[in-house]
Design brief:
Elements lengths: L2 E6 L13 H9 L2 E4 L6 H10 L3 E3 L7 H6 L3 E6 L2 E6 L8 H8 L5 E3 L7 E4 L5 E4 L13 E8 L2 E9 L9
Parallel strand pairs: 1-2, 2-3, 5-6, 6-8
Antiparallel strand pairs: 1-9, 4-5, 7-8, 9-10
Length: 173
């Protein structure tokens, strides 16, 4: 049975926004699994996400304090229908990222990360898929606030789509 995923990072609540956009909440409530790649900032965001989502996989980021670090790991690893996911907040500079992550996560099929607020979707030389959903609250130099949706089915990651966090519409990467 397919699993629908929502991938978010860098929510920075309540500093960058007071709440997550409604379109993102609707996606979260429909998803089977929600990944959050750190920089929650507010413990209440974790509590609300856990209350509204079927399943949450999260890590802490560099802006997360001791309460979040007590509840979340720095690195999370989970297997969903045969697809091995790893997640961390930071991966270092853009230059050389693919080769570095091949070394750091040799047993993963997909690495979800955050920190830059810049959407990212590449495949490393060893076949590791790198995904950064951007930020649903702080676009920085990006044209819009974003998140990713995807589907896992029969051991494959499919239908990875970048979405506008305010409207839920698919947008160009």
């Amino acid at each position: 049975m397919p699993l629908d995923l929502v991938l978010i990072a860098d929510t920075h609540l309540p500093k960058r926004a007071k709440v997550l956009p409604d379109a993102l909440w609707r996606a979260i409530e429909r998803a089977d699994v929600v990944f959050h790649a750190g920089d929650w900032v507010d413990l209440a965001t974790l509590d609300e996400l856990e209350a509204r989502a079927r399943r949450v996989v999260g890590v802490w980021g560099n802006n997360d304090g001791p309460e979040l670090r007590e509840r979340l790991p720095e690195v999370a690893q989970v297997e969903l229908d045969g697809v091995r996911f790893a997640m961390t907040h930071e991966t270092g500079q853009k230059a050389g990222r693919e080769r570095r992550m091949d070394t750091v996560f040799p047993d993963a099929d997909v690495l979800v990360f955050g920190h830059s607020h810049i959407p990212w979707d590449t495949v490393t030389p060893n076949g590791l898929r790198l995904l950064n959903p951007g930020s649903p609250t702080d676009r920085r130099r990006q044209p819009r606030v974003t998140y990713l949706t995807a589907r896992v089915d029969a051991g494959r990651l499919m239908q990875v789509e970048l979405r506008d966090a305010r409207t839920g519409e698919v947008v160009p990467a």
